[in-house]
Amino acid sequence: MLAYDVDPSKPNAARIYDYLLGGKDNFAADRAAAEQLLRALPDAARFAKANRAFLAAAVRHVAGHGIEQYVDIGAGLPTSPNVHECARAAVPGARVTYVDNDPVVVSHARAVLAADDLVRVLSADARDYEAILSALELGGTIDLSRPVCVLLVSMLHFLADSDADALVAALRDRMAPGSYLVLSAGCRDDSTVPMGEQIQSAYGSRILLSGRTSAEIAAYFGDLELVPPGVVPVTEWPVEVPHARQATSAPATPGMLAGIGRKRP
What we know:
The chain is 38% helix and 15% strand. With 265 residues, the protein is an alpha/beta fold.
C-alpha cells in the first residue's frame, strides 16, 4: 500500500469498499468495519462486486455509442477495470476525470494514473457541484458543450437528501443533449430500517448514510430516457461477462438500485 498522511485507526468508506471488492488498499480498522457491515448485511460484498460489474457494463454500453468523455464523481480507490479502461475498449481516445474529496483516494489515483495525459484526478466535494462544473470546463479534459457520461456510482447514499437532489439536478441540467447519467444508490424501505441502523453503526458516526426509496432513486433520472432494463437492483443489471455476477439466487434485500439515463438530443 502507498503511504499517505491518514489516520489508519479510523474506517474510511473508500477503503471499506476496497475490502469488500477483495482489494488490499485498506487498514485493520477498515476490515473490522467491513466485517461488522457483513454481519448486518451479509450480501454487502455481493452488492459491492455487482456494483463494480454494473459500472463496467454501463461504461462499455455508453462507449459503444461513441461517447468520448467521462466524469466519475465519488470515484473511490482505483480498481481495475476502471472507467478509462472500459471506455477505451471501444473509444481508444476516451478522456476521463475522476472526482473525489478523500485525500487518500486523490493521492493514490494521481500516483497510479500520473502517466496518462487523458486522465485527470480532481479533488473536490460532490456537494460543491458548481466548483466541479467550473473545474471541468477549465481543466481541458472535459468539454461540457459536447455529450459526456457522468457517473454517480455508489456515492449518493453518502450525501444528505437535499445535497444529492441538488447535485443530480445540476448535472442533468448542464449535460449536453446525447449525454448519459449512470448511477447506483443504496435502497431502503420500511423493512430495512433496523438493518440500516446496524449498517450505520458499522460505518461509524464520521460516515453518514442516507438510503433512498426506489421512487426517489428513479426520480434522479428526471426526464432522461432510461436504458433497458431501467432502474433495477444492481445484482440484476445485465453484464456481458457471465462470471461477473456472484450468484443466481436473489439477495435478501434489493440493497442498491442502478440505472442509465440518456439526455434526449
